[in-house]
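Q: Given only this backbone (164 positions), what sequence would you predict?
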């Protein structure tokens, strides 16, 4: 004997095919949670790598030693250093004022800060003004290709020259 469909059975089947308010809200909640998880996962992957801007490299080439005649003092404003050649000895002195970071200019007596009046002698020692310490000296070395390199990450003792 076959069962004849009753009115209650047909209502159950038709209600499972239709979208009720409860099913709609459940589906929307599920999609919202899934979307939140996906956005969170994506943002974690994006922000793992820090967003930093790297400045100029602190080790750079300044050319061959022959480009600097003995007794010369040449300022490289883009690199904020002064290259000093004294006979066969070379040095790199910072041109950044130790007071507030201004760029110092070379003068007949050494260096002078145009912003706040600090004065330095030929070796970068403070002779006047508000500067708290002498100008730093940087390491100079000879690269395998014969060019001079300055490493601003390595400060050396004042008066230490590189022999060429």
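A: Predicted residues:
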């Amino acid at each position: 004997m076959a069962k004849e469909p009753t009115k209650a059975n047909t209502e159950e089947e038709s209600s499972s095919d239709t979208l009720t308010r409860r099913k709609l809200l459940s589906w929307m909640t599920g999609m919202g949670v899934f979307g939140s998880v996906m956005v969170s996962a994506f943002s974690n992957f994006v922000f793992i790598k820090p967003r930093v801007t790297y400045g100029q490299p602190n080790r750079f080439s300044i050319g061959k030693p022959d480009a600097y005649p003995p007794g010369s003092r040449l300022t490289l404003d883009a690199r904020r250093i002064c290259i000093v050649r004294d006979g066969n000895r070379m040095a790199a002195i910072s041109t950044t004022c130790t007071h507030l970071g201004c760029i110092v200019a070379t003068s007949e007596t050494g260096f002078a800060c145009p912003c706040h009046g600090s004065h330095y002698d030929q070796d970068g020692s403070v002779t006047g003004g508000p500067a708290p310490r002498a100008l730093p000296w940087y390491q100079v070395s000879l690269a395998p290709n014969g060019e001079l390199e300055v490493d601003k990450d390595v400060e050396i003792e004042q008066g230490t020259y590189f022999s060429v």
